[in-house]
Amino acid sequence: MGKRYPFFLLAASTILCLLFVPEYVAYNPATDGPLDGADITWMLVATALVLLMTPGLAFFYGGMVNRRNVISTMMQSFICMGVVSVLWIMVGYSMAFGDSIGGVIGDPRTFLFFKDVTLAPKEGQTIPHLLFAFFQMKFAVITPALITGSFAERVRFRSYLLFTVLFILFIYAPLCHMTWGGGLFEEWGVLDFAGGTVMHMSAGFAALAGAFYLGKRKHVSHDPANVPYVILGTAMLWFGWFGFNAGSELAANSNTVIALANTMMASAAAMIAWAFFDRMRNRKMSAVGACIGAVVGLVAITPAAGFVSLGESIFIGGLSAVISNLAVDFKNSTSLDDTLDVFPCHGLGGIVGMILTAIFAGAAEGGLLATGGNFGLIGAHLGALLITGIFSFFGSLLLFKFVDALLHIRVTESQEFKGLDLSQHGESILEPEQAQEVLASAMDLEVANA
Fold first, then answer.
1. Distance CA 108, CA 100 (A)
2. Can you list the domains of the chain with their CATH numbers?
3. Which candidate, 139, 142, 137, places its Cα nearest to that of 117?
4. What pLDDT digit, counting tens, does each position of 54-95 carry?
5. Coil, strand or helix: which one is 126?
6. 100-101 and 105-106 as β-strands: parallel, antiparallel, unpaired?
7. Bridge-partner residues for 155, per DSSP?
8. What are phi and psi for residue 121, nearest 5 degrees?
9. Residues with Cβ < 8 Å from 111, sequence gap 6 or more?
10. Which of 320, 204, 201 is nearest to 265 (CA)?
């Protein structure tokens, strides 16, 4: 049954969608509320841009692992576009944006199988509800993909698929509801423009839990397989992030422009800060380092994009890069094997961004500086950070334990030596002769361990 469960899940989900996903309901302008053509056009573009980020992340991560694990690492990101999309329509969207249950999670029945997700706008919006739901789908798609960098090179693929499903339902959906769906954090007034808590902190702490639970790799390699892949992935992420952040305004207006400008400058400042900070510490100004810095800046500005000034966005990007750079060094001095530094970059980047959002936000939002020292907003943010960190870390730890008990989550030592490309997918970027040598050596290792 363990080997067949992905087939049964796919077959069951397909049949359920065919039976229960409703037909589109025609939009009636007389009764359904106004739609704005400019807003719809921008949000269609923004939705497509956010989807581009997932293959961008695949290239970003895939270029940094060793040559035996490039395909598997990229596939762990890419598969989310299939698995999470179907899950989102079935029940994920409802659990994130359905009627609130205790301020913690949405009622799964509210939009089950996209029931009542129509072409009419939600209250207070000028775009079709269906478009909003698909825009949010792209956020859900990339979040579990972010986690994969922490346990790269040592996780069984089908176990990862099950973890992804459980993470979306029991970690991502509650945090999304609490922050954006009318739940607890939103009631507190927490500001998260595009996903500092919902995505980057949740993924960062889940990554920390994964690295902690799975332990170190048996065969550690720090040589990136393809640095141009890392550069290409960064470019795709940066490009897509304009839809990610500016699209979160859900309209085409002046604040959309502010979010786009802040996104650009925070990432630019972080790239420069990372590269020059490395040089100050007598290191080479590497392409990989510059790319990581740019992504850290994008992460940190995400919660603040629509709430801060251009100068403040530059400060947020630069400071976050320095903090994450130091955190990577500290992690490397420990036994924790977070393969691609997901927690130091995404987790800490999200934390820094959320704290600085509460400090720099305008007077209307209750920012610390703009209100002359009102600590209400920063208190709400610190409370949200604490809850998010505890919930994401320990919740993900339980999910890893559950998946491990059900399917066994980690590959064997010989499979790890062989590489996940060959052991999990039967594919490889290695030359045929190299692949044969790896397989022969892996077989010898199996015999030695028998």
1. 10
2. 57-410 (1.10.3430.10)
3. 137
4. 999 999 999 999 999 999 999 999 999 999 999 999 999 999
5. coil
6. antiparallel
7. 410
8. -75, 150
9. 93, 94, 97, 98, 117, 133
10. 320
